[in-house]
Design a protein that fits this description.
The complex is a heterodimer of chains A (about 100) and B (about 325).
Chain A: H1 9-31, H2 37-57, H3 62-84, H4 92-104
Helix pairs in contact in A: 1-2, 1-3, 1-4, 2-3
Chain B: H1 21-24, H2 29-41, H3 43-51, H4 69-82, H5 90-113, H6 120-131, E1 142-145, H7 148-162, H8 176-184, E2 190-193, E3 196-200, H9 208-217, H10 222-245, H11 257-270, H12 272-280, H13 284-294, H14 298-307, H15 311-319
Parallel strand pairs in B: 1-3
Antiparallel strand pairs in B: 2-3
Helix pairs in contact in B: 2-3, 5-6, 6-9, 6-10, 9-10, 10-11, 10-12, 10-14, 11-15, 14-15
Chain lengths: ~100, ~325
Amino acid sequence: MPTSKKPSEAAIKRELHTLSTRAFELAKAAADKAAGDSDKAEAAKLAAELPALSARSKALSADYQAEAARVLSEARLDLAFAKAGGGIPSSIRIGRYITEKAAAE
Amino acid sequence: MRESKSESIAPAYLPSATVSLKEARGTGPASNQVRAVQRLAGNRAASNLISRTSLLVQRHPPGAELPAKGTQVEEIALKKQMKPEATRTKTQETTQVGAATAEGKAFQKKQKLTPGAMSLASAQKILQGAFGGVKDIVPGTVEVLADQPACAAKYDEVCIAAGIVRDDGNLWAAGDCAKDDAAAGVLTEGFAWQGVVYVNGQTTLVTATAHEILHNNAQGTFRDKMGETFNEGFTELLARKALSMAGVTVPSVTAYPDQVKFTLRLQNLVGQPIMADAYFGNPDTVIAKVNELKGAGTFDTLKTHAEALDEAKFNAVLAKKKA
């Protein structure tokens, strides 16, 4: 009987971090008005991965659930922002990025 | 100073330091550190720090060069240049710390009845009590919403008001945020729009409001220079510290657990006062300190590993001795 190997906690956390980091980069590119069609397509592809990753994250320890939820929520907003090419309400971190950038200019 | 053979008086969370005659007069860098401990941890901690040393005066032969004079002069100049000015008098400090403790007690009492996020005003008072000596804390534009559904509804509200068009070409409508959340298997807990930060007021994280206010008070280049990991980690550490000082019970489960872990290790290396000065004043102080202690370019390497949350590589760099 085939056995399905469950991903380890460390592997899920890595996946979350990788997706979150990439989502943030894509959103920053959108905020900078530097995002191209390929970036928007990548954002859409990553957004489609969110439901499965969200389901996998339920296997994380109870102590890490709130953090996983925060990371996923932030990533969803970043990816929506990237797909839209900016101009919509964003994650808090992108909001701060925009504010800091405006202050520096 | 670090090359001196003299006894170190610094506690574990401060960089090691020796006390020279200049320090005994209260004008040298170690005195600054004692004052920093006093400011951040209180008079008792500062007294303990002083009483734990048997060496108050370190002498070197008259006319001789100070050991590591170049490094010392550089360090003093850097601190003079970068240390933020104290922003309150002793009377103001007493008043603000008192107000913070009263606010902390009131919050603690309220939490027992209806748990939820701290109000903006309470968090601002608590942060002012803790860090008012280095930075006058401003709340900034943070709106605490009643709960998660209110958060999603507010997202819809601002989208509708701005006439935002969805991917499918339709105008944004009430309920769209919750619909998008459900499709992705997540819940929107906070967002930003046109300079305003909106957060879910029914969060289980007691530091939520203080955390967001702290971001509004960080030095403008802190995030850019320190990276996301240290930025979030140190913001959360400061929020936890301020709440604890005000008597609020802070649970062991923290927001940004990975970021806090990496930042604590950095803080153990450079000391909390330098981190706080960097957060509110100039991040270059931390970068310079790390490079001074571990060698040129080390901060950049640590930052890279911290951004990747690569603990093994991060710890290996920290464990290395300066070449």
